[in-house]
Amino acid sequence: MSVTDATLPRERQGLILERLHRDGKVVATDLALEFKVSEDSIRRDLRDLAAQGLCRRVYGGALLAQTPVAPLGERHHERAELKRVLGRVAASLVGEKQIIFIDAGSTNTALAKALPDHRSLTVVTNAPDVATAVLGRPGFEVILLGGRLDPRIGGAIGSRTIRQAQDIRADLCFPGVCALDPVSGLWTFDEEETVLKQAMIEASGETVVIATPDKLVASATHHTAPITALTHLVVASDTDASMLERYRHAGVAVHL
Amino acid sequence: MSVTDATLPRERQGLILERLHRDGKVVATDLALEFKVSEDSIRRDLRDLAAQGLCRRVYGGALLAQTPVAPLGERHHERAELKRVLGRVAASLVGEKQIIFIDAGSTNTALAKALPDHRSLTVVTNAPDVATAVLGRPGFEVILLGGRLDPRIGGAIGSRTIRQAQDIRADLCFPGVCALDPVSGLWTFDEEETVLKQAMIEASGETVVIATPDKLVASATHHTAPITALTHLVVASDTDASMLERYRHAGVAVHL
DNA sequence: TGCAATCGTGCATAAACGTGCAATACCGGG
DNA sequence: CCCGGTATTGCACGTTTATGCACGATTGCA
Lengths: 256, 256
Known about the structure:
Two copies of one chain form a homodimer.
Chain A: H1 9-23, E1 25-27, H2 28-35, H3 39-51, E2 55-58, E3 61-64, H4 74-91, E4 99-102, H5 106-114, E5 121-125, H6 128-134, E6 140-144, E7 147-150, E8 155-157, H7 159-165, E9 170-174, E10 179-181, E11 185-188, H8 191-202, E12 204-211, E13 222-225, E14 232-235, H9 241-249, E15 253-255
Parallel strand pairs in A: 4-5, 4-9, 5-6, 9-12, 12-14, 14-15
Antiparallel strand pairs in A: 1-3, 2-3, 7-8, 10-11, 11-13
Helix pairs in contact in A: 2-3, 4-5, 5-6, 7-8
The structure holds a DNA duplex (30 and 30 nucleotides).
């Protein structure tokens, strides 16, 4: 489109600050590569920013001027940490320029946060939290599925949502799931929710389920999809080996 | 097609502003090429716009006037505090069992947080942030408008969103606004955004605009609604009295 | 200590900038 | 119709800013 997609000097400094606040640190070499300028220019940028008190200059790059994040609560931290790890593993299954369905749920929100930038991904979701997690980050296009929001699941459900979902064709989908079984497949608690997940799965090439340990032993009321619909499963590394073998035997790629 | 497709100077400045709000930056060289004028003229335009506080002049072009990150806690906090107060005032205009449209925007997010519980309100919004602010609280039903999310606005826009909005009839609507004028009414920067706000206003009985001080002196490119469409205006208490009188004269109820 | 990466400084070059000036177009009054 | 004022524009000039490279000093790590 534009003749020059060159980055303005001051704009670059702003982007550096943005990266700094997101990652907590920046590396001079990486920045030089990313913005396609010499390391000297980056050094000058960092020096200016440090002079304004906006960052702390260190050998090799810069750090946040303030302490990045206070340590979170301990108990809640552990479950969140697990979801974060599972999310990161699941995120690695996503390729460049793919269209991905992300269902509502705290685990899927963690996945959304873990998705890499600059991959030209299109994220389709019925959950405001997921949308917020990726909105505004570079290389993301976000499509929101509307409808009535169910406070229990934190996402839109209902016929209107399903109709919108049917307009989409995706490469990958990440349905939230209430229970999982190596023989019968995916189970959910709610009728409307079930139909939406089914539409989601049908519209996608591959299906990935991220299962926290509790999902592997739970049971639910509505059958959502057979185990054959599942292509990838992401679970904690301390999961029972025989259980995993049963999933592999059903043709599911298991990731730890 | 007129024979002269020459762009008027002031018109050009408006178009530059539009591009600026669309892309977050403008490059002087590109603009000169696009409008077929010398870079000197572009520089003069940018200088004028910057003098009006509508953009931030930088070497090579211009950036959005908005502060990229909070330079100091005080200023940003003060603005947040102001929005919180304005939000609370606006929230008092909402009655029991009403259906209300809430547009995207940080001020409207503050409004959503300030809405009272247990009032059987139905909130219709195109913004994930607004949805999250009220989701799960007692006495709220939330309807999400889907569509492609615009990262600059923080909400869904486009024809799909508009179609969903047209299915709704609301008591009250809170359109976000880029600029406000006691004679001409509401102004916005983006075409698609304009159409959505128009649909929103038409579908609602009353229209409330929450205007932070900067909106009252700013100017924008797209006319969104006449002043007669406005029923309530919420502004800071230190706003110029003669300005408020002009709004009251136009039949707008002003709240401080 | 030795080595490689990183840093700061000085310098040359190119791009962008501001200013002054002249040319042109538009507008209202005589 | 003419004429002076104003606004806008492009050009020339000297100035400022940003950049990359070269060189030597410094830092971190083994």
